[in-house]
Amino acid sequence: MSKPKLDIVRLEAAASRMRALAHPMRIAIIDMLTDSPKMSVTEIYERLGIEQAAASHHLNILKNKGILVSKRDGKKIYYSLKNNTLMQIVECLDRCDRE
Asked: Looking at residue 1, what is its pLDDT?
C-alpha cells in the first residue's frame, strides 16, 4: 500500500493556523470562547486584562486565519469559534505538558 501524496497547500494552511495559535493571549481567547461560545470584544479584553487594541489585534489574526468568526450586533462585534477542532489541539498540548 502506498502512502498518500502530501497536499502542500493544505499543509501550509494548517501551519499558518498553528502559527496563529502560537501566542498565549490567542490560546486564552480560544479557551474563553470554548466556555462562552459568543463574546464581545469588550468582554474579551476585560477578562484578559489587556488593552482593547491588543485584543482587537489578536482577534483579527485569529479571524483572518479562519479560526474565529465575527458578527456585528448594533455597535458590538461578537466573536465565536468557527469550530472546536483547534481547541482539541490546545487541550492535547496541555495534556502533553502534564505527562
From this structure: 64
Residues of the chain falling short of pLDDT 50: none
Model-level pTM?
A: 0.82
Exposure pattern of 58-76 as b/e (b: 16+ CB <10 Å)?
bbebbbebebbeeeeeeee
Total number of residues shown for the chain = 99
From CA 49, how far away is CA 18, in angstroms rounded? 24
The ranges assigned to domains in the chain are 9-98
> What pLDDT, on a 0 to 100 scale, did the predictor assign at position 83?
84
CA–CA distance, 26 with 49 (Å, rounded to integer): 13
Classify domain 9-98 at the CATH class level: mainly alpha
39, 90, 18, 42: CA torsion to nearest 10: 20
